[in-house]
Structure formats: structure tokens, C-alpha cells
């Protein structure tokens, strides 16, 4: 039975630092600037022999309107509702504030077990604040230092009795021949700020899981959410909007951009979301090139299609610019959608699954060599200095993305234009649109040279 622990508190008390420590790696963005965390982030936490889901939340503010802060608070309230236990953190060095008092009263009225943690309590500077925390009426506060790992023993003593009794696992008959579980498909949603990335994921999930609104740049952390599509587990990753580097001045935004780039690195398929009203701009092409350079499968979603007046012209312009500016990866799927209304999402997901299959495609060596003989006969390689380059052998070295090794005489003399010819023929003949293809040339060894 899964156990869920939510970490809450006002801004800048160290919630994300504790989250990172329990998860065991630096996942959540951490900075001295308050309000860095906005969405609730989930991770797999470990504390000695306990394993649980831990939720990092935005800093609590006493607001109930339609502002961004109020929407952040509602996300935290949902996290508390779904939790089996809550850690309320205060800043021991700052002492108990009126905001701490307000939310302490709110937690006391609930039924979820609460541990009060006075963070930043290392040394004697935080002792007065820890003692002051008794006034919140949430029991004995523990002295915690999330940064230095102090107080985790007390946290374990609080959590351990709350865990359900472990059941004896039933013995299962061993089965053979089953397909190896490849794990969830890692699907990252990227794009410029305010193009509708979070709205798209919320619509797929069927709930307001991620913060959305008219403000640009709401998402800062890359937030992953597990989901299921037609029986296929998918890990959706919402990312911060990527602007041109020259426009980025804020330190937190730089951290967010680095986090987004890591999400692309670990993704298997990337959905690049465009605004139909703006089309395919230079920054979108920069993002697409990053995805291609990392060897990830790419699908383009043209969002806000419901508000697009010249649909044929918009789609033609996007495809033409892709052809001119991004010829190295032909056949990238372009799907018009409306994330707000849910239109086009089945087509988008079908394109994602198709791109994933192409990305994993493996071709037999015999088939590849018959193909190489045909294409080299139809369009022979050049003959620099009067000696024609001979294409001897091809094999697929790996998948994800498809990578091929070609043995040929004088590989350094083979021009890039001929490699592009081979790549385009490979895409067309074996139905591999959109995905990056890697080709490596090597010269065969002379068996008579020791």
C-alpha cells in the first residue's frame, strides 16, 4: 500500500531542500529567492527502511482570489487532501510568523497526522524559534536541518508507526518468455513560455494537476506525472518555457532552463508546442535542434488551433519553414490541437506512439546490405582522384535513435551530401520519418597488416 507524505509551509522555509534530501538527488529547484516552487512535485522518497511518495509544494500564502498565489495555494490544499501525513515546516531562525499561525490553525482542524519541523535549526541560532513553535499547538516540534541532514531520526520516528503492516508476499509461479517491461514512456512537453504546455498536460490527465494562467513563465520546475494511455504507462514531463538566451537575466529562470534541458536529455519522445498565432519562430527551431542533437524523437503540436483564422496558410508556413530550416530530420509529425478544448489530442498521442516505435526500430543486417547495394548502384559514391569510394557493409549499431555503421574505402573522402542521400533514402525506404538518424563511417581493417 503506497504512503504519501506532503511537505508544506510558507515560502522559503526549506521545503524543496528537504524534498531533495528524501528523494536522494537534486530534483527540485532550490534558491534563496522565495516562491521558486509553484507546482506540486512528486518523487519517490526513502528514509532508512521506509519508502513513500513525497510531495513538494508551493509556499503557502493567505489568499483566496484568482491570483497566481491563490492557485498555488489550492494546489497545496490538494496535496494535503491526498496525503497520509504532513510535515509543516517553519524557519527556526525567523521564529513563528502570523502566516505560520494561520496555517497551523488550518492543519489542526484536519484529520491528517502532522509533524511540525523547525528547519534551519543547526547551532543555537534556531533554538528560540523551535521553542516558539510550541505555540502552534501541533505537538512537539523537531529540530531539523534539511540542508545538513539533521533531525531525520525524529522524522523516521514520526513516520514509522503510520505505515501499514507489511503483508507477506504471495508466492508466484515463475513465468518464462515474457516481454521485458521497458518502463514508462518518457514524454517531455517543451516550448516557449505561454504556449499551453501545462494546459495540454492537464487536459490529458483530466484534472487541474498543473498551474495554468495568463501569466507567462508560471512553470519553473520540470514536473513529471505518471499517466496511462491505452494500457501504456507514460511519464508526462511539463517544463519551463524556453526563451532566447539573450533575454534571460533572472537566476531562477536560468535554473529552470537548465532543468528543461535535462528533461530533454532524459526524454524518449519530445512534444514541441507552438502557438498557432505565432507559427514556427526562430526560438522554436532552436529547441527542435536541441531535441535532434540529443537524439530524441520529436513531434510538433500546433496549439490554440481553435483561434487560428488562416489554418491552411499557417500549416503550410510551418511545414515550409521546417523543410528549409530543418532538412536534416525529414517527416517530423505536425499535429494541430486545442489544449483548452481537448481537440486533436488523440491524433497527437497516436503521433507520439508512432514516433516512439520509429525511434526504437531495428533493421536486420541482411536487409540493410541488400538496400545499400541497390542505393549505391542507383547513385554511386563519388570518385575523388579517379578512385571510386566503395560501400562495403552496413549494420545497425543501436536504436534510440537508430544508429548505423557503414564500412567503406576512404571514409574521410565521402562528402556530407552523399551521407544525406543515404539518410534520406533510409528514411523513405524503411518508413522512418521524423526521428534522428546517426551514421558512422569506418574503414575496414586490412587482414594482411598486423
Automatic annotation (TrEMBL):
Record note on quaternary structure: Associates with the 50S ribosomal subunit.
UniProt name for this protein: GTPase Der
CDD domains: EngA1 (cd01894), EngA2 (cd01895)
UniProt domain EngA-type G: residue ranges: 3-167, 185-360
Residue positions binding GTP 2: 191-198, 238-242, 303-306
Keywords assigned: GTP-binding, Hydrolase, Nucleotide-binding, Repeat, Ribosome biogenesis
Binding annotation for GTP 1: 9-16, 56-60, 119-122
Protein family (similarity comment): Belongs to the TRAFAC class TrmE-Era-EngA-EngB-Septin-like GTPase superfamily. EngA (Der) GTPase family.
Free-text function comment from the UniProt entry: GTPase that plays an essential role in the late steps of ribosome biogenesis.
Gene Ontology terms for molecular function: hydrolase activity
Gene3D superfamilies: 3.30.300.20, P-loop containing nucleotide triphosphate hydrolases
Amino acid at each position: 500500500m503506497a504512503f504519501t507524505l506532503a511537505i508544506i509551509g510558507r515560502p522559503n522555509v526549506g521545503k524543496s531542500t528537504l524534498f531533495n534530501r528524501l528523494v536522494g538527488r537534486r530534483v527540485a529547484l532550490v534558491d534563496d529567492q522565495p516562491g521558486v516552487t509553484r507546482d506540486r512535485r512528486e518523487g519517490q522518497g526513502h528514509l532508512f527502511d521506509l519508502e513513500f511518495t513525497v510531495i513538494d509544494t508551493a509556499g503557502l500564502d493567505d489568499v483566496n482570489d484568482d491570483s497566481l498565489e491563490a492557485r498555488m495555494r489550492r494546489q497545496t490544499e490538494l496535496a494535503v487532501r491526498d496525503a497520509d501525513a504532513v510535515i509543516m515546516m517553519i524557519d527556526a531562525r525567523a521564529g513563528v510568523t502570523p502566516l505560520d499561525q494561520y496555517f497551523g490553525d488550518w492543519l489542526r482542524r484536519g484529520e491528517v497526522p502532522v509533524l511540525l519541523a523547525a528547519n534551519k535549526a543547526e547551532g543555537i541560532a534556531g533554538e528560540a524559534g523551535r521553542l516558539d513553535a510550541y505555540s502552534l499547538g501541533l505537538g512537539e516540534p523537531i529540530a531539523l536541518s534539511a540542508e545538513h541532514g539533521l533531525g531525520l531520526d525524529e522524522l523516521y520516528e514520526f513516520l514509522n508507526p503510520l505505515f501499514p503492516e507489511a503483508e507477506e508476499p504471495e508466492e508466484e509461479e515463475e513465468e518464462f518468455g515474457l516481454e521485458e517491461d521497458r518502463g514508462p514512456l518518457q514524454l517531455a512537453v517543451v516550448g516557449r513560455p505561454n504556449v499551453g504546455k501545462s494546459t495540454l498536460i492537464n487536459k490529458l490527465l483530466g484534472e487541474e494537476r498543473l498551474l495554468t494562467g495568463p501569466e507567462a513563465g508560471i512553470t519553473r520546475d520540470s514536473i513529471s506525472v505518471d499517466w496511462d494511455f491505452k494500457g501504456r504507462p507514460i511519464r508526462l514531463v511539463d517544463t519551463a518555457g524556453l526563451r532566447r538566451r539573450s533575454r534571460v537575466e533572472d537566476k531562477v529562470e536560468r535554473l529552470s532552463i537548465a532543468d528543461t534541458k535535462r528533461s530533454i536529455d532524459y526524454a524518449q519522445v519530445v512534444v514541441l508546442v507552438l502557438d498557432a498565432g505565432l507559427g514556427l519562430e526562430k526560438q522554436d527551431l532552436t529547441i527542435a535542434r536541441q531535441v535532434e542533437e540529443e537524439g530524441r524523437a520529436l513531434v510538433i503540436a500546433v496549439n490554440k488551433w481553435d483561434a487560428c483564422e488562416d489554418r491552411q496558410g499557417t500549416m503550410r508556413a510551418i511545414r515550409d519553414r521546417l523543410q528549409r530550416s530543418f532538412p536534416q530530420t525529414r517527416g517530423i509529425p505536425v499535429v494541430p490541437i486545442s489544449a483548452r478544448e481537448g481537440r486533436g489530442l488523440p491524433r497527437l498521442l497516436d503521433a507520439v506512439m508512432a514516433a516512439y516505435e520509429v525511434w526504437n526500430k531495428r533493421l536486420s543486417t541482411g536487409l540493410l546490405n541488400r538496400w545499400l547495394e541497390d542505393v549505391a548502384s542507383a547513385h554511386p559514391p563519388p570518385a575523388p582522384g579517379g578512385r571510386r569510394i566503395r560501400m562495403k557493409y552496413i549494420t545497425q549499431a543501436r536504436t534510440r535513435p537508430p544508429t548505423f555503421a557503414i564500412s567503406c574505402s576512404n571514409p574521410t573522402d565521402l562528402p556530407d551530401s552523399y551521407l544525406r542521400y543515404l539518410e534520406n533514402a533510409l528514411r523513405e525506404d524503411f518508413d522512418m520519418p521524423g526521428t534522428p538518424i546517426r551514421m558512422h563511417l569506418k574503414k575496414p581493417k586490412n587482414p594482411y597488416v598486423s
